[in-house]
Amino acid sequence: AWCEQEDCHILFQDEPSYPPFLRELHDAPPLLFVRGEPRQLHNPQIAVVGSRNPSVIGKETAYEFSRALASAGIAITSGLALGIDAVSHQGAMDGGGQTISVFGTGLDRVYPAANRDLAHNIVEQGGVLVSEHPPGTLPLAGNFPRRNRIISALSLGTLVVEAALRSGSLITARLAAEQGREVFAIPGSIHNPLARGCHRLIREGAKLVETAQDVLEELAPQLHAALE
Predict the structure, then answer these.
(1) From CA 65, how far away is CA 160, in angstroms rounded?
(2) What percent of the chain has pLDDT over 70?
(3) Residue 175 to residue 4: CA distance in whole angstroms
(4) Is the Cα dihedral 150, 122, 170, 44 positive or negative?
């Protein structure tokens, strides 16, 4: 009933409208709840993730990268959390592009509540909200690490902007690598605790990037294939 009232689509795994990248997962959600145009989930995407308590520079960096990548035609996918997630969604919209938010709750439960207006604006500006959880699902802690596998699987690559060593963003990056996706990390000062997660990723093989163009160049073969 809520889906009918709120124009929410339900995508089943065996339907053509279900995102093909997500279908590849061994634990792919059997169905998805979607607000917005489901076909957007088939478009090239890059996940942008990071700290919920970023530095001012971190927020500016996430915003500018997301704005530039969205302007180039790549949708920005993230998790609507405070901090890097939120500014990345906003940067994509301000760049005139698309953004996709993956919930760890039902779509009727915007979490955190402080981002309720942001979620509304995403749909109003042609973006998409998506969840594997039915309406009414509360923000249970275990839902969010599982949510991250969807963020990474939908995307050609995951960009980590700022992350401490114990960070959910590193979970998303690990999942992306396991799924055969690209992992990008932005370096920072050795004195910044929020740079340590990115530095670890770089030591483990993530691509160090300094500009949005670096990301576009690395993704060029995948983008070409996705657009064929």
Answers:
(1) 11
(2) 99
(3) 33
(4) positive
Confidence of residue 227 (pLDDT cuts 50, 70, 90): low
Q: Is the pLDDT of residue 155 over 90?
A: yes
* Token pair belonging to 106: 């039902």
User: Which comes out higher in pLDDT, residue 99 or 222?
Assistant: 99
Residue 78 bridge partners (DSSP)? 101
How many Å apart are CA 197 and CA 203, to the nearest integer?
A: 10
Order across the sheet with 75-78: list the strands: 8-12, 31-35, 128-131, 99-102, 75-78, 45-49, 157-160, 182-185, 207-208
Q: Which residue has the tokens 């990115």?
A: 198
Report CA-CA distances (Å) from 131 to 10, 108, 137, 173. Answer: 10, 10, 10, 20
Please state at what angle helix 212-227 crosses helix 56-71, rounded to 10 degrees. 30
The reported pLDDT for the residue numbered 81 is 97
Residue with tokens 């971190």: 58
